[in-house]
Every structure is written in structure tokens, then in C-alpha cells.
Specification:
The complex is a heterodimer. Chain A contains eight helices and twelve strands. By secondary structure, chain A is α+β, with helices and mostly antiparallel strands. In chain A, a hairpin with a 2-residue loop joins strand 7 (210-215) and strand 8. Chain B has one domain (12-204). The chains are: A alpha+beta, B mainly alpha.
Chain lengths: 320, 212
């Protein structure tokens, strides 16, 4: 039996229809907004991502070595999640995400070329040859950003001496691992793989040049170039070749990956120089990761007192 | 009593309007929470620039959508999409000038005069300015539809310059900017093909008319 509603409680038909239409329109509005907004977020890489859990930040050793800066180190999370390591992708967050495929053990370094006796050595044996030091270095990327990184490693000069190069050796050439199963982007033709770099012998022997095997007192994470990487703090970051498998002593200036890729934009020396612009952007200033405003870039990245003499008599404009 | 005439899809424009602001809100939110990554200024700069390009392409897609799919609803969004392109281009430009370079005029001057990717980007931004200023119905009346349409064809040039700006900016990996350039190329191609067809049909009509 239906109870009769008092006529005052009956919704007039036009109003009832209006309400239904309003709800329908509100729903479609929300769908449109969510759909277009979501599409834009996806297209611009802003889709929410699982936040990487940063490792706890161990305090860097308090005793500063002769060559360490006292500037505040960049946070561990940024040092390990903002990387250029194109073997794992071109986005800065790609290496941290993708470098799990790299197997830094077992790892063999081979030494070839103009040396008394070529040899190969397992990385763990190599690590027993030299005492590890902490070096807090500025790192200036050619893209005009910078970090301060507490590296752990040993001077490249110690390794070079151990290799017993011949007098005819004028340069040291470095090569990254070539293995697309571990470094997936090596399947592409993005760069002329494997990544190669080089130093003049006097640069390699300079006490600032470091082979890093760790940072922040921990084993080097894969995305930072495990297990062995070069650190040359007065040069742009791309000189710091990662995951090194081969060192070759040679007479002529070796090919280097970025100079091969863009000879008009990158050179062999790649010394940090605020006076020489990259063709597409100024190198006069840099943004220190973690800071909001730019700071002035220093000649030789602030290491001019130590290294400027290496280039006496050379045209500084040629040293980019 | 005749029912009042209503737009058939009153939710469309407000919905897209709200959606277009989502990236701005998301970025502000991430910025305040410190989840924009290691270099938030670079991230903001890149996202705003990309949004400007996306909206420019979306506004240029309205006509092809009508020609190819027979859709007319994108035409109703076109002006708003174009204005969002201008809005995000302004935010992109302002981020560069005010946040990234902190009004360092010598550097900014060197950028827009010496660096070709900056020159084309700045040119694209300048081209959008008269389009935004004449985006009202009153402007169409004042200029006359023919002239207004001719002026607003600058949007094609702005699109090309914006795509080139993106292509020239990236260090090495041009896959993403290339994809946007290809989309733009496809959108422009649809118009070219249509214009050629229309002209041909017109010529045919004229010949058959004179034959009769």
C-alpha cells in the first residue's frame, strides 16, 4: 500500500530533472578534468612515482684530507638519485632505477698498452693494494649544476705507478664495461658505446685525480659507477668515466666519447672554465644541487691553485 | 513554453579548464613538499615549457580533428587551449627569467641573442603574444574574420619554433622532442592536404561552371 506523500514533499518535475542533469554534468565535468589533468601529468613526467627510500646518511669522516673541501656535502639521496649514466637511460632518475642489472662483482680490470707488462686484476685484489681515503670534492657537471661529494677511493697516480708505464706512454685511456645485458642502453645508438675517456699522463698523475670505489663511507652504488670510477674534480663531470674495465697507456691523445659525439660542444680537456660557454648555455654560473640560487663557477672548479700550472702556455679557450 | 537552449555539453569546457590547471597544482604541491627532485628549478622549467608545447599542439589539433574525424567539439575548446599555451609559455619564461637566472640581464641578453635554441624559443613566445591579445570575439569583429584568421596562422609558426626550441635544447636524446615535432608535422600536413583539395575542388567547380 503506498502511503500518499503530502504534495509539499513531491519534487516538482522540472526541478527533479534539473537535479539529475546537474549531477550528470558534475560527474562528466569531474571525469573530463581528471582525464585531461591525468594525461597532462603523464605526458610531462609528473605522474606520482613511488618515492625512493633514501639510505640513511652516514656522516662523512670528520678528518679532512689535504684536498677535501669543507663545503657541505650534497645529500646522499641526491648524490645517488640524480645521475648522468646514459648506459641506464638519459633521465637523471634512470640510473638509480635501472642500474640494478649491473653486476659489480666479480669484476676484472685489465691494464694494456705501453706498460712493462700488461695484466688483469680482480677488483677485490686491487682494493687491497691501496689504502682508501676520503676526498670531499666539488663536482661540476657540464650542464651547469654541481654537487659536493664525499668520495672514498685511492689516487689514480698510485694505480698508474703500479702499472709501470713505459716512457713512451703520454696518455691514459679508460673504457667502461660493454655488456648490454648489464647496461641496457648499450643496445641503442645513443652514444658510440662503450664509453671511453682519457687523461694526459701528468693529469693522471696529479694527486687530485682519484679512482673512487665508494661514497659517504659506503660501497659505490651501481648508479654512481660501481665498482671503479674516475673522479677528476677540476674537469666537467663527464670526464669521470664509470664502471671502468680497461686502462690503456698510449702515445697519442685518445678518443673520448663526448668529444666524438659533439666535437663542437665537448673537447678532450673539458677543464671547468666559466669564461668559455657551452655553445648552448653559459658556464659562468651553476646551480648547486640543494640550493635555489646560482653561484659563480670557479676556474678549474676552484682547483686552479693545484692544477693551473699543468696547462701553462696553453690557450685556455682550447681547454674546454 | 520552449525549454531554454542549453549547450549540449556544458561540462566540457570547465572540465578541460580544471584539468589544464592540474599540472600547475601538482607542481606547486610537489615543490612545497620537496618532492620535485634534486633540481626543482630545472624540473619546473622543463615541465612548463612542455605544457606550453602540448597546449599549442592541442589547439592546432582542433581543425585536423574536424577534417579527419568529423569532430566539432575540439573547435569549441580551441581558444581556451591556445590561451593555456600562452599561459604556460608565460610561466615557463617567467621561471627562466625570475627563478633560474634571477633577472641577470647580461646573461639573459646573451641567451636570447647568441644561443640559437633560445632565439627560437623566445621568438615562439613573442609570436603567441599578439594571438593572445586578439583572442576575443571583439577582436575578430574589429579585424574582420579574414585578417584575424591570417594573423592567427602565426600559431603554426609558433608551433614550429617551439618544437625546434625543444629539439635544440636537449643534450643528446632527441626521442621525446622528435615525437612532438612529428605530431606537429602530421597536424600541419592534414591542413596542407585539405587546402590543396579545397583549391582543386574549387578550380573544378569553376571549370565545370564555365563549361555549362
Amino acid at each position: 500500500m503506498s502511503r500518499l506523500l503530502p504534495s509539499s514533499e513531491i519534487t516538482p518535475e522540472p526541478l527533479f530533472r534539473g537535479r539529475r542533469e546537474f549531477l550528470r554534468n558534475a560527474g562528466l565535468f569531474t571525469l573530463t578534468a581528471a582525464g585531461s589533468g591525468g594525461a597532462l601529468l603523464a605526458l610531462t613526467g609528473a605522474a606520482p612515482e613511488k618515492a625512493a627510500v633514501p639510505a640513511p646518511e652516514p656522516a662523512p669522516l670528520k678528518v679532512l684530507g689535504r684536498y677535501s673541501t669543507d663545503e657541505t656535502p650534497t645529500g646522499y639521496a641526491d648524490v645517488t638519485h640524480y645521475n648522468n649514466f646514459y648506459e641506464f637511460g638519459t633521465d637523471k632518475s634512470d640510473p638509480a632505477r635501472n642500474a640494478g642489472t649491473l653486476k659489480p662483482r666479480p669484476w676484472t680490470l685489465s691494464v694494456e698498452g705501453l706498460v712493462k707488462k700488461p695484466f688483469s686484476v680482480d677488483v677485490d685484489t686491487l682494493l687491497k693494494w691501496f689504502p682508501l681515503e676520503e676526498r670531499i670534492y666539488r663536482m661540476r657537471c657540464v650542464e651547469a649544476w654541481s654537487m659536493v661529494i664525499p668520495w672514498n677511493g685511492f689516487p689514480l697516480a698510485e694505480l698508474v705507478k703500479r702499472c709501470e708505464p713505459l716512457g713512451s706512454a703520454k696518455y691514459v685511456a679508460f673504457q667502461t664495461l660493454m655488456d648490454p645485458t648489464q647496461m641496457p642502453e648499450e643496445r641503442t645508438h645513443l652514444l658510440d658505446w662503450p664509453y671511453v675517456e682519457g687523461l694526459r699522463m701528468d693529469e693522471a698523475l696529479h694527486p687530485l685525480s682519484l679512482i673512487a670505489v665508494g661514497l659517504y663511507g659506503k660501497t659505490l652504488p651501481n648508479q654512481n659507477g660501481a665498482p671503479l670510477r674516475l673522479v677528476v674534480p677540476w674537469k666537467y663531470g663527464f670526464k669521470g668515466i664509470k664502471s671502468i674495465v680497461k686502462i690503456r697507456f698510449v702515445e697519442a691523445q685518445p678518443q673520448t666519447t663526448w668529444a666524438l659525439t659533439g666535437p663542437s660542444e665537448y673537447g678532450f680537456y673539458a677543464n671547468v672554465n666559466p669564461a668559455v660557454d657551452h655553445p648552448r648555455w653559459s658556464q659562468a654560473t651553476e646551480r648547486r644541487i640543494g640550493e635555489f640560487s646560482r653561484r659563480k663557477t670557479l676556474p678549474f672548479n676552484g682547483y686552479a691553485d693545484e692544477v693551473a700550472s699543468l696547462y701553462a702556455g696553453m690557450d685556455p679557450k682550447k681547454l674546454y | 513554453m520552449a525549454p531554454p537552449r542549453r549547450l549540449p555539453v556544458p561540462w566540457l569546457k570547465p572540465g578541460v579548464f580544471a584539468g589544464a590547471l592540474v599540472p600547475l597544482v601538482a607542481l606547486a604541491w610537489q615543490g612545497l613538499n620537496g618532492t620535485l627532485g634534486a633540481d626543482p628549478v630545472a624540473i619546473a622549467l622543463n615541465r612548463f615549457g612542455l605544457l606550453a608545447l602540448i597546449f599549442l599542439l592541442a589547439s592546432l589539433a582542433a581543425t585536423p580533428a574536424k577534417l579527419l574525424l568529423g569532430w566539432t567539439w575540439p573547435l569549441r575548446l580551441r581558444r581556451m587551449l591556445g590561451l593555456f599555451a600562452f599561459f604556460y609559455a608565460c610561466v615557463h619564461f617567467a621561471t627562466y627569467v625570475a627563478v633560474d637566472q634571477r633577472f641577470d640581464w647580461p646573461v639573459l641578453w646573451a641567451d636570447v641573442t647568441k644561443r640559437k635554441f633560445m632565439v627560437v624559443g623566445f621568438a615562439a613566445f613573442l609570436l603567441l603574444l599578439p594571438l593572445a591579445l586578439t583572442s576575443t570575439d571583439a577582436s575578430v569583429r574589429r579585424l574582420g574574420l579574414r585578417r584575424w584568421k591570417a594573423l592567427h596562422r602565426l600559431a603554426y609558426l609558433a608551433g614550429v619554433l617551439a618544437a625546434v626550441h625543444f629539439l635544440w635544447r636537449v643534450k643528446l636524446d632527441i626521442r621525446q622532442p622528435l615525437l612532438y615535432a612529428l605530431v606537429l608535422g602530421a597536424l600541419l600536413l592534414v591542413r596542407v592536404v585539405d587546402a590543396v583539395r579545397t583549391r582543386r575542388a574549387k578550380a573544378q567547380r569553376q571549370t565545370s561552371a564555365s563549361a555549362a
